[in-house]
Each structure stands twice: as C-alpha cells, then as structure tokens.
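User: Batch of two.

Assistant: Item 1 of 2:
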Amino acid sequence: MAALVLGGAAPAAAQHRAPDSSAVVRTDLGPVRGLVKDGYRLFQGIPYAAPPTGGLRFRPPQPARAWKGVYDATSPRGQCAQLPAPYGGETSYEEDCLHLNVTTPDRANRRHGLPVMVWVHGGGNTTGTASIHNAAKLAVNGGVVVVTINYRLGPLGWLADPSLETGADRGHQAGNYGLLDQQAALRWVRRNAETFGGDPGNVTLFGESAGGADTCANLASPTAAGLFHKVIAQSYTCTAPVRTEASAEAEGAAIGKAMGCDKGSAPADAACLRALPVKTLLETFEAKATEVGPVAGGDRVLPLEPAQAIERGRINRVPVMHGNTLDEMRLFVSLGFPNPITAAEYEDFVRSTYGADADKILARYPAADYPEPRLALAALQTDSNELVSACAHQDAFRLLKRAGVPVYAYQFADRGAPPLLDVPGFEEGAEHTSELTYLFPGLYGDLKPPQERLSDAMVGYWTSFARNGRPMARQAPDWPRFRSPDDVLYLAPGSGGIHPTDTTETSNCSFWNSL
C-alpha cells in the first residue's frame, strides 16, 4: 500500500540568509542559521546522521560529524533516492539525505518547554520527502515545535538481503534501515529540542500511510523506548501485518541475485550490494515489485509484529491518536482506473477478485447505488482493506484500549477536500491523504472558509494532544476517549460536521467479518 506525497526538495540556496540573529541556533554539532518568517522560524536540511554512503550503505545510521562555522539551514537538502511515481517526487539518486527540518513559533527559544511533534512522511516507503510539509500553522497556531524528517527509502531503506547481516552487522536485522533512521532522528530531537524552544520530554511521533505504518512499528519497537511520549498514526492501522524475517530475507536474497550479487560468500555479496549504482538498485527493486517497510523478528528493533506486540502489551505505553479517511481507496481506484468503467466491468472485476464471495459483495455494493461503478468499487475496497479500512482501524482501537493506553479515534470525512490527484470526471472525496492539507496548508490546494474552520479544529486537536495527551480545540466539540465503537470522531466541515460516530456500522464491518 503506497502512502502518497507530492513534490521534491529544492537545492540549498544561500541567497535566502536572514540577518536576524534569532535565526541562529546552536545544536550539538554546531550552529545553524534558518529563516525568520511571519510568526515562525524555519530551519531546513539539518543533518541528523552521517551520510549513509559507501561503506555505510545498508548499515544502521551513524553519528553525523560536527561542522565549523554556521551551517546554512535556509533551504532544504535533496530528497532521498527514489524513482518518480504518480503521487511522489522527482527522480533522485541522492544517498546523502538524512536531514530534517525544524519549524518553531517565532522567538520560541525564549519559551522553553513547547511540545515537539516529529513528522514521518508517507510515500509507500519508496517516495516522498519531508520538506514539502509546511508546518507553520501547526507551530504558530498550536504553539509547538515541528520536526519533519527524511529517512532512507526503497532498497536503501528496506532491502533485507541476509548477506548484510555479517561482520559488524551481525545481529542487526537487515531491512530496517529506514526505521532506524527515524529513531536516529528522534535521538537528535532528544539532544537538540531544548535549544529550539522544545521540550525533549514531550515528543509526539506522527505520520501518515507508510509514515503511519512506521509510527506503529516504532510504537512496538524496544529500541524506540523513551524517544517519544505520544503517537498519532494516520491512515494505516497498527494491526496491519508487516514483513517477517523469513519473507523479507527470501525476497532480499532474490533481489541480490537479480543484481548479480550472489558471489558465493556473504561478505562478497554485501560488498557487491554496497558498490552497485543507486540507479541499478532502484530500477531492479521496482521491477521486482519488492515489498517495503519494517521487518519483524531477527533482533531487538522489532521483535514482534505491531499487532502481536499490542495484543501482548509489549509496546511503548503512550497515548495514541489513530484514524483513517472516509474514502481511502478512491485514490487507488482513480490510479488503477483513470477512465470510467461500466457496471459489467465492475461486476467482472469483483467476481475475479473475490470469487465465491462475489455475489454477496455485489448485493451489498450494487453499482446502481453509486453515481458511477468506480465509486462502488472504491467503497467496497475501502471497507474491506486490511491496511486502511475503518474496520481494521477499529481492531487497532480495541487492541490498544485493551493494552491499557489512552486511545482517541477519528475519521476524516470532508468529501470536498483538495485531491492529491485531480482525475477528470471522478469524485475523489475524502480519499487517502486528503486530511494532510488541513494540517499542512497548501499541500494539495487551497481551502474554503468552512474547510479552514475544520483545519483550525484539527490543528487544535492534534497540537493539544501533543501538549497533554488529550485532543481539544476551541469552539469545537469534545473528543471522547475511545471506549466503544461509536467513540470515533467524525471530522467534516460545516455545522454539526464534527461528531462521534460508529464506523463499524458505516463500513459494514459485521458483513466483512462474516465472509
């Protein structure tokens, strides 16, 4: 399942230096100079780990080196290596990409103790970049420090060839490099939050889609213990399966062989993989349609799948905000079917996909009940999907509640939200990623006044949760703690648009559980 973000990082530009001394902050590696904007300060492209190049490719992140002078943090650095996608950034072969961006309210260095929010971008763990997320509204309106991070993507972040577990890397499960990057960024935050006006003892990790999946993995990771104090996982259920050690290593070995790195010994194979051109790695990885994301088992980073860890109570016990969008799969249906389909084509697709259950599904989701067959297909796929559906999220809410952590559940439901991709003749609705523009203004387009008010409420909910573990917003309804299926906060614009609802009913969860 791809998590989707647009755009790429611009090259560094020294011409934007700000003369105001308040834009200079001293980190543990040296001073950085950022930009003073209207009500906030922005620092971009700060290295949080050494470049994972050469002998450091396919290894856990190593400490960055200190610099002399003042580091120019006035513009973002390059996005991590990736190939283009309909929903992602431009082609990049850059490996030196372990940078982060910090947005603070203006003069936050005089207001120590602000909550810190660390954003993990989506993009299927294969594409995307942190710098496109404008965190000014969260920082200024919410009174928080926001850190957006890059992490290794595709094969460079998630290749699990077993030959990489040799020598100094013996005991390190291959394939979790992206996850370890995120934890290295969190350790940077712990060391440096205070100098930006933040509280290192009050950190919220939040992410969407693949970033939400990684956030759930960090929730279950013993090596992330103490690095964050609250979690917000958006549009990817914490009960979703992740790669197992056996499956990831089998696939990783096949990829290595396809690239000619089966030399007869593990050290030789690892050396071969570290010497390959980035372009070869990316193109082979994509051609093989390799799975990406965290690997469970093999070492202490992720000994159990997140669902297993939650069920056994072996998680980092912090408050959790968790939810999805009303029409998640409309994005993927529009990508798969950019042109209209007929009712007969819809029926053929359902029969070929769902086999013996097709008649029941077609009776529950008849094409005639929807403006067009593609919307019927998106509805049934949204309700049935094991990664992003309301039903799968309800499973996570219940498990987390049973584990004894406070849970706040939501569903974003503005069907007029600016779409990630505007497909002619298709109603995108509240599709996957559609809530992001309400947290990061301008990401996919402009908002109308009622939507701006919804955005204000969401920023209030998200940042108050980061502050004290309870989502609250001015002139907005109370958000109930999750105790039963109808404690899910429905987020839509207009009078009465925000209210608790039971997503098990609206998503036909009993029906899908019966199949």
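Item 2 of 2:
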Amino acid sequence: MKLLCSMLLFLIINTLYSQNSIKGTVLDANTKEGLAFVNIYFTDIEKGTSTNEKGIFTIENLPSGSHTMLVSFIGYETKSLKISIPNTSNITIDLSPTAIEMEAVIISTPFHKLQSENVMKVEKQSIKTLKANGAVNLADGITNIAGVESVTTGLSIGKPVIRGLSSNRVLVYAQGVRLENQQFGDEHGLGISDSGIESVEVIKGPASLLYGSDALGGVLYINPEKFAETNTRKADFSGNYFSNTQGYNTNAGYKASKDNFKFLFRGSLTEHADYKTDDYRVTNTRFREQDFKAGIGYQVNTFKTEFRYNVNNSKLGIPEEIGEQSTSKTPLFPFQNIANHVFSSKSTVFFNDSRLDVNLGYIYNDRKEFEDDILQAVLYMKLKTANYDIKYNLPKLGKFETIVGVQGMNQLNTNYGEEQLIPDATTNDFGVLATSHIHFETADVQLGIRYDNRNLNVDSGLQKDFNSFNSAIGVKTNIFEKITARVNLATGFRAPNLSELTSDGVHEGTNRYEIGNNNLKSEQNFQTDVALEFKNEHVEFFVNGFYNKINNYIFLSPEGTVIDNKPVFTYLQENAKLYGGEIGLHIHPHPLDWLHIESSFETVTGKQDNDSYLPLIPANSLTNTLRIEFEKPWFKNAYAFIKLRTTFNQDNISAFETSTNGYSLLSTGLGGDFKLFKNIATITLSGTNLTNKTYINHLSRLKPDGIFNMGRNINIGLTYNL
C-alpha cells in the first residue's frame, strides 16, 4: 500500500511537467464538410468534447500512451480509433453516413470496446429509452431487454432474471462497484433508483471470470451519468406522472466541470399509490422512494479519480391480500423501510503504455420490516460490505491486450430485530484473474483464467470455505462480409449464500418457514453461447443460443410439514440445465430511414437432471414494434412507436408452482425535443396495457393469491435543460 501511494504521488507531481493535447477535424466522408456537434470521447480516460460548427475539436491534459477514441454522431457510422499520445497531435477523421444506429462502448467487459468489436455479446440500453417505453422504474425497465425479466412483488420490488437465473446468481454493479443488499430474499429489490443512471448493460451468461462468485448467471451493470464535458455546466429537472397509481417521480440535477475538477449531484422523489387492475386496486403495493446521488472528480495528465455517493431510502408496502381500496400513498402494515448507502471511488494511474485501475466500494444496507403499529422492527438487519477491484492493463504485446487483477470483499451481517432469519456472520472473498484479448486478421479471441476463495464465519461457530478455478474462451469472426459470429465457452461458480446455509425462521415476505442446509456444495456451471448477427443498411438480424449445465443447483423445496402455521421449505441440490435463446429482426429500409420494424422472440427452459422443471422460469415471449423517427423545425429527435408484446402459456413448472396463462399487452408512445424559453425541453407520452388486460405474470410473487398485474397506465414526462 505504501508503494502504491508513493507511485500515485510521484505521478501526480510528474504531471506538472507534462502536458499533452490533441486537435482534430471531423468531416463528412462524401462532402468533406466539417460536422458540428460530433461527440469525441476517450473511453479509458473518460474525457471528451464536441466539435464546433466547423467540425474542429481540442482536448487537453491527456496522458501519454495508446488510448481508444470514440467518434459518434447520429446518422453516421461510429468510429473507434487507437490514438498514440503524444505522437498524434492533429488528426482528420472522415465519417460516412449510415442508416445503422450509433454504437456505444461496453463498460462491463474489461477492454471497453464497441459492441461490434466485443467478443462477448452484451446488451446495452439507455435509461432514456427504457423510460420512453413507459417503464415505471428500473426493475420494470430492464424487462424491455431481450433475455431479461424480473421477479416482482407489485411495482416497488423487482429483481432481475437473466435467462432463467436470478437472486444471488445475478450480480448487480452500480457506480463501478458490486452492489450488496441482501439479494437472497425474494422480496428484496434492487435498492437503486433510475435517477442519475445513464444506461444498463447485461452480460447474459457466466461472468465469474470477470466478477467472481454470484455472477454465475450474468451481470446487470448500471452506468451512472457522466460528468459534464470540460469547462461546461448543465442543469436539468424532470417530472413524470403515472395515471394508474396516481403516482409521480421528480428529479433535479446539476453538474459542472473545469480543467481538472468536476462535480455533480442529483436528487429525486417518487411516490405511488396502490396499482389498479380492471377489477380492483392491489392493497399495499404503494411506496415512497427518496434518492440522492453526488460525485466529485479530479483529473490531470497521468492520474484521474472520482468519488461517488448514493443514498436511497425506500418505504415499501408488502401486499398480502386485496383489502382497503384507496389512493393513499402511505404504506400499510406490513412494510419495509430500507436505507441503502453506496460509497465508491474509481481511480486510474496512466503509465506510458499501461494503466492501473483501482475501484473501491463500501455499501451499507439498513433493512427493517414492520408488522404492526408497535413501530418496532420485527426483522432488522444491517449488511456492511467493503469491496475492492484492482486491475493492471499491461503494455500491449503484439496482438495481445492483457489485464491481470485482484478482487475481494469483506461483508458483515448483523441482526437487531426480535426475529432472525439468518444469523450474524462475516464473509470474505478473494479472487485473482488474468484475461487477454488477441487480435488476428480474421478473428478476435478472448480468454482468461481465475481463482476464487470464499470464507464464511457464522457467529454460532459454523465455518465454511469454498474454492474454485474458472476459465473462459471466446471467438468473434466475420463468416461473410455482413455476418458476424461469436462463440463463447465459460465456466462459472456460486458459493451457497448465508440464507441457503443457515436459515432457520419465518421469511415474512414469502409467508414460509425456511430451513438452511450447511452441507450445500458450490454450484458449478459450464455454458456455451453462440451468436450470429447480420447487418446492412436495410436489415439487422440476430440469433443467440445458449446451453447452461449447472452442477449442484440449489433450490427451495416444500418439506410437507408446518411450523408456526407456515409451510416448511428446505434447501436441496440437484444437477440442472437451462437452454434457449433470443431471435431478433430489425428492418429500417433505405431510403426510408425514419421507419423501423422490430421483432424479437425469447425462450428459456430450465430442468433438473431428473426431468423436473426449475421454478421461476419466465414464459416464452414475442415482441413486435413499429417505430418512426422524424424531425420538424419545432420538434427535434422526435419518435413514435406502437408495441405488442405476447407472452405465451407457461406450463413447464416446478412441483410447487401452478401454470400461467398467456396474454398480449399493447403499448404506444411518442416524444421529442422542443425549445422552451430558449432552452431545450423533452416531452414523452406513453401508454402501457392499453386494452386494460387482466393477466398474471409467471414471475409475480402475487401469483399464488390470484392477484393480477397492473392494468392500463398512461405516463407523461417532461425534462427541462437549463
């Protein structure tokens, strides 16, 4: 640690004597005219600007070495360029017009490349797009991403399901650090607001090589909003109204950046009454959420750092049965009161041809559950987690880009309530990894290996150690000029969590008595992913397929007995397999570039080796969307869409589930930018479940009680930029 601090201090001082900059011009490849407002962004330095009206840009205070520069503009191809600093000081870039939508850099994979350059297929969606489709919150929004669903308890509580796997098999990252908030619970949601979030990335498949235990099923990587560009400042506020719940959310933010320092902050408030179906309001699905995010950054030539803080306080009603019919927004008993604090720091030291990334996090989750008006928490748990992620990007050696790193976590669970579901315990994780991206003329190869150890110490005396080696290899190549193929093979693992090993009590949110099994072994899986993609100026088509073999799959099973008038469930293990995939078609016929016809189908099947089906497997679904984009002198970046999502019957169910009928939901929306009082405002209008269909999603935790999901909802939103 002393050596690291000395190195950082030396490099900061060294920047006083080294100033690098780059100047460039971006031109239309056909007309050779300068393009204004083109985005220029160095992905590893996290620094960017825009071109002026002549297509000229300048960026100063750049570290020496080889860096990736992204050049993007709507209606033009996105370019990813390797720039050598200080060897390159002036550059001219030609962009060719294209009907294919702009690409984004993928942050969740270690080499931060465009999706077209990535060996692993990663889905990425902006929060702006998800909200434009009528999403009520983040958990609702991610279900618009192919292969992703959500286990829900009303509107307020939702947790991601990736290709049939959920809970502690899906790892959530926010602000660049691992988010820990008692994910084992069925009624424990994300604990994070979509306010101040820029985009969401989804790794579908084992990501244990990159993230360790609990990433066996995939990763939901949440990217916070960027700081303002150098020497600029921005402010905005927004509001959304939801007709179904008579709910609203508001948020306001401000950010500014100078040559070296930058900062931002954003606050939001959300309130919803009980959601309404065609027949009734679902009692106690009401909730209130307050969220505040802040960040400060400092950057000089060879060193950059940022610190972010997020506090999310939620008061969430827990629905049990249909009762009081009102539009009150104050939760009834029982309810949860959750405060989630996320502290993170993200620093990079740039050497001439390499760099060191250091990410540190501290997450404090304060969870209380109240059952009656005594106002004493029946269930009261505090989870304190410190984690670190240190990676060194080695100098590029020929065709090899290589990263080595260490990751770890210290976690303390403490009980304060009169009831105890899981005991006080300490968990320590440690992992070491190495991964390389190899560039060949006709293919790109990525491979890696990792070792992990998890040590669990329960205050009652139980001690457990889990170890695992994992590896991955993937290949991306162009089979033909317009067809790209990706094949990825990876192993993953998940150590049993504290709940699975030690539970002994009533899990109030699920109305059952859970008994853990301290003889559980680690889950270990092997997954094969194959992806084919065709893309030209008229059509995009993709096929993704996967086969996931999981040994020692852990699941809850009813024992057939009763304790405290609650059915007893115990944790068992059995080998299992999941398989399925996604198919998608996007037609944007040239020269009708404003017209988009999109269709996607997703399917997953999960079975034990004894041919019994796994629980909580989402039903097959088909989504068809017609979308248009248009420009008017008074209405910019405008769009309109109509979408029909059909969810099929789910008859492949576990022993203690019931089948679910299929249904179709119709949605529509429109929006765009316009000038209001000399500033830009954005308006969105959307409607979901327009036919007010009564239906039950197979992953709804209210399904056993026959309670319907939400009916028709009209959402109107306005954002104003100061």
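Confidence is low (pLDDT under 50) at residues 1-5, 7-17.
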